[in-house]
Amino acid sequence: MHPAFSVIFFTVSSGAGYGLLALVGALGAAGLLPADRLFGLTAIILALAAVTAGLLSSTFHLGHPERAWRAFSQWRSSWLSREGVASVLTYGPALALAAVWMWPDRFGAYGPVAGAASAVMALVTIYCTAMIYRSLATIHQWSNGWVVPSYLVLGLATGLVWLNALLVLFGAESYVVAVASMWGVLAAAAIKVFYWRFIDTTRHAATPESATGLGALGKVRYLEGPHTEQNYLLNEMGYRVARKHALKLRRIVLIGGYLAAICAVGVGLKIQGPGEGALALLGAALATAGTLVERWLFFAEARHVVTLYYGADRA
Fold first, then answer.
1. 300: CB partners within 8 A, 6+ apart
2. Ordered structural domains, the chain, with CATH
3. What average pLDDT does the segment 190-218 reach?
């Protein structure tokens, strides 16, 4: 599939934002985060800013962005619509959580409820985003059991590294979150390795023979293209990335992104002073950059079964 930057940015930014919001909500409800007002507001504003930026970016991939509101009406049958509804509903408990942090004397009693609701809705939204792709049976690289766990783990992992950076910058205790973020990024790397192994060793059940209905006559060979120029199907659904480039980008994700982020956070635990904050920020930036490259590959390596009509031997 064509890796449109607007959709790549959307899934990475909103995933990190919802991951951070889920963690702030859950840990805040459990009383495991600083009660400092500025910290709480900064964390929630950063999460909502990332979410909002991602959602706005996703509209640029639409043919008619002004009609995006119509997608909300199809929530009974469309995961895209369910994601839109869930994303809007999440703002409610998130703003309530911000009010709890801002005025604890007045709204403190609602903190656990607002935090839990924010965490649940954030994870539900990530799940809906993942199901947009998981539900497409025509794309083998998306319609498999690794996609939903991948989106959830990557969202939480990037949320963890950003939460760790915030804790360090505010001078709060961050050891547990830092260790958790390292394990989270490691889990993200592991699940991507399993996902890549799956798409490398399996293929869609459809073949040129089944797609054309000519399998009874023998093996189908591509003789001549149905047209002489590129069209929408080939541009959007027939995008190809060379195998050697894909392997190189996978190494960049695992080593230059995730492993480097783990090292940065780990070294940051051993030092004090300004360097600790710089390394925490570097770890968050590296993990996010690695996820950007991972998400580009997620789209670029996907092959729609329609390409079987254009000479592809597998989908």
1. 1, 3, 239, 241, 246
2. 1-135 (1.20.120), 173-315 (no CATH)
3. 82
